[in-house]
Amino acid sequence: MQVNRRQFLSTLTAGSAALVLGNIGFPDKVYATESVILPKLPYPGDALAPYISAQTISFHYGKHHQGYVDKLNKLLSQSDLVGASLETIIKAPTGPDKVDIFHNAAQVWNHNFYWLSLRPKGGGKPEGELAKLIEVSFGSVEALKEELKKAALTQFGSGWAWLVQEGEKLKVWQTDNADTPLTKGVTPLLNIDVWEHAYYLDYQNQRVDYVNAVLEHLVNWEFAAKNLKI
Ligand code: MN
């Protein structure tokens, strides 16, 4: 089934994240295509080492993320959502027959977003409008990092920590398992995966060391800034 031009455009305008992702190397067709595909990693698999190893990336991207894509395509092939964009699939009403589709679609999107929330030689200080909004919302970058850390560490079991924009304010959120802020009327700016598969090979049970490494060395403030709706 082809996605018509109107659906395609409404998908693009529905989320600035989609536009941003399209701009920096993720193919637009990820968001509006017949097949949901695994986007190319925005950096080499060993580029986040030593903070996230090539081995972790090979499993996390090559097996887990790929696995969500494959499972989703299989489920979509037997559903009326075949051919819809990832965002449309995620925002579709979830009846009992759609739960698996939602979980896998949201995990594909959350991971697409996660790889872009990280970058080699990340960390440092946010700039411009993002820096101003952080100051207004949290008091300081350090205070925001503490909130993100707390969200990442107190998330019970699998899930995600997020920086989101709600109107003029930035907020830190937690989501369980595959859940995503995309369906909740806020704009996601960046996320941190706190499923054990994100850190166990490198840090075993020390989620705190993984989260500190992400916040000090990998977090991609430029990506968060590009996602702002101003
Ligand atoms: Mn993951």
Question: TL;DR of this structure?
Answer:
This protein has 230 residues and is mostly helical.
Describe this structure in words.
- With 230 residues, the protein is mainly alpha-helical.
- The chain folds into 2 domains: 5-44 and 52-117, Helix Hairpins; 128-227, minor pseudopilin epsh fold.
- The protein is 50% helix and 10% strand.
- It is built from 10 helices and 3 strands, in the order αααααααβββααα.
- The chain has a 3-stranded antiparallel β-sheet with strand order 2-1-3.
- A hairpin with a 2-residue loop joins β1 (159-166) and β2 (169-176).
- The chain starts with a helix and ends with a helix.
- Residues 1-34 have low confidence and may be disordered.
- Manganese (II) ion (MN) binds next to α3.
- Residues 60, 64, 111, 193, 195, 197-198 line the site of manganese (II) ion.
* CATH level 1 name of the largest domain: Mainly Alpha
- The gyration radius over C-alpha positions equals 17 Å
Please trace the helix and strand order, writing H or E for each element.
HHHHHHHEEEHHH
Q: What is the count of β-strands?
A: 3
What does the secondary structure layout of this molecule look like, with pairings?
Blueprint: H1 5-14, H2 16-23, H3 54-76, H4 86-91, H5 99-117, H6 128-138, H7 141-154, E1 159-166, E2 169-176, E3 187-193, H8 200-203, H9 207-218, H10 221-227
Antiparallel strand pairs: 1-2, 1-3
Helix pairs in contact: 3-5, 7-9
The protein binds manganese (II) ion.
Manganese (II) ion binds next to helix 3.
